[in-house]
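Sequence in, structure out. Go.
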Amino acid sequence: MTESIMSKAATMEIPINSNGDTGTLPEDDSLEQAAKLQWSLDEKVGSSRGTRDLQQVMVSGPNLNETSIVSGGYGGTAEGIIPTSSIKGPAVRCNAEFYKRIPVTGIGSSMHHSSSSSSMTAEEMSRGVAVEKLETVKLWGLNTYKCTKQMLSERFGRASRTVDLELEAQIEVLRDTKRKYESVLRLARALTNHFYNMVQTQHALGDTFADLSQKSPELRDEFGYNAETQKLLCKNGETLLGAINFFVSSINTLVNKTMEDTLMTIKMFENARLEFDAYRSDLEELSMGPRDAVAMARIDAAQQQYQVHKEKYERLRSDVIIKLKFLEENKVKVMHKQLLLFHNAISAYFAGNQQQLEQTLKQFNIKLRPPGADKPSWLEEQ
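Output:
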């Protein structure tokens, strides 16, 4: 009976508006008084009830339906306990409104601000990289379009091209020389392979003659002479193979490295020539059009691009001229040495002059691989 009267008195202290929200009571004072009264109430409640409540909280946690809201009674010490089951909505919303007023500051806000600023920085960097790549692709596409248009126009006779007759003649001579040297290299490798097989056959034949000389007493001398001859030919053949292998290696370096490097520069020069003519034709086409402000701006931009590609074309043209000159000098020096080596080695071998053959290798500083070495043979290295 007493609890019912106190509950009604406490309910009268909390005005409820038409929307179900609490009135304009000072929430901070009410909560403080509620905490004090709840503490005094807990002291008065018996140990059995306190133990039961503690066990219930430990097992299932706090339940809003069993939580009490304590309201001070008219400024005195009267205790008013209102079960939350009777005012579910207002009590919960009152607490929610109270916690909404607590500002969130400190580490959490600073971390959020730092992470947002870092994400903005990363986004700006990625956006800048994307814009740069897009601009690069755009310029590449424009340049490819202009060069393709110029190439097709030249092929169908609709556009002119820059011609350097003397330089183009030298380039054509170089390409023809490279084709002929590639033929020499291919034939020299074929000769080396065939001669290597012959030397291996002579070596096997010499071993067979030596074995038969030991097993055939009536033909020992004859088999012995032939065995010695084949071993000598095999030794001289290995010496000649060393000379031919050096010749093949030098020609291979000249053709596939020195000449190829010059031809790569020539290819870059030809691409620069095509770009130069493409932008030159573009500038000529714009110059023949109207002269308004927009057209003049486009003409100025085309003039700048034309100047850039002109400088590139002239620089590569100078590089090609220099490389062709040094290539010719290097080719003469290398081929003079290699042709002399090839002639002397072949002549000494087929003349049976072993001393002259060995002297030829010493003259050109050629060292043969010692027999029984673990390294692969020169044929395996090809």
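Check: The chain is about 75% helix and 5% strand. The first helix runs from residue 2 to 13.
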